[in-house]
Design a protein that fits this description.
Layout (H helix, E strand, L loop, with lengths): L10 E6 L3 H7 L5 H19 L4 E6 L2 H4 L4 H4 L7 E5 L8 H9 L4 E7 L1 H14 L3 E10 L6 H10 L2 E3 L1 H9 L12 H8 L24
Length: 217
């Protein structure tokens, strides 16, 4: 049986429209749901940077109105990450974005962002149609829509694979000895073996200590 597994050498990350305007619409009270989500976005970006995962971030126009990333996410955005303004809801309908993704050496894409039932869904369908394996990070999705379940079902029926950021982090690490945020001795062990090992982000918190996931899909 062919089972889909996350492969560190084949996966990239697509972060869709995590912009202040959409966050304000979905979380008008700026509550603990929003904090839970932002913590996960910070860790997704830190993990992508440290593991050198190709990253594409999109921003829906007009950017002057919708904004770009919140400051706390800008602070951890990978230097090699690509950023694109988009007009179409589906990323793969946007020629520059589709071209950039196709040029990446990946077969899998982890998708996060907003809105679950609009830009995320249309982008996921486009990625699946283009032949990519899509891992949908459910705890990194949000929307102003109160009933996103039909959109989720549609994506999964089309072939998207349900996932969470914690699941992805551990699947990328594979074992205890290769999990940088688990044993404190990991960094010293790796530096002894490989002096050129990239320092692991000191702000990274083990997934078990993240705020409780309060679904706002």
């Amino acid at each position: 049986m062919d089972i889909s597994r996350i492969n560190r050498l084949q996966i990239g990350v697509l972060l869709i429209d995590v912009q202040p305007a959409f966050l304000d619409w979905a979380f008008p009270d700026q509550n603990e749901e929003l904090e839970s989500l932002l913590v996960r976005y910070e860790h997704l970006l830190m993990l992508s940077d440290w593991m050198d995962l190709p990253l594409v971030a999109t921003f829906e126009k007009p950017i002057a109105q919708n904004g770009e990333l919140p400051e706390r996410l800008e602070a951890v955005f990978p230097a090699e990450g690509q950023r694109f303004e988009k007009n179409y809801f589906g990323c793969m309908t946007e020629p520059k974005i589709a071209s950039a993704i196709k040029e990446l050496p990946i077969k899998q894409i982890a998708v996060a962002g907003a809105e679950t039932d609009v830009c995320v869904m249309q982008s996921v369908l486009g990625l699946l149609q283009a032949g990519y394996q899509v891992f949908l990070l459910e705890d990194c999705l949000f929307t102003s829509e109160s009933q996103p379940a039909p959109a989720l079902r549609r994506m999964y029926q089309a072939g998207a694979i349900p996932c969470t950021l914690k699941t992805m982090a551990y699947e990328l690490s594979k074992c205890v000895d290769e999990t940088p945020y688990s044993p404190e001795a990991w960094e010293m062990k790796e530096l002894k073996k490989h002096p050129d090992t990239k320092p692991f982000p000191k702000k990274f918190i083990p997934p078990e200590k993240w705020p409780v996931w309060i679904p706002k899909l």
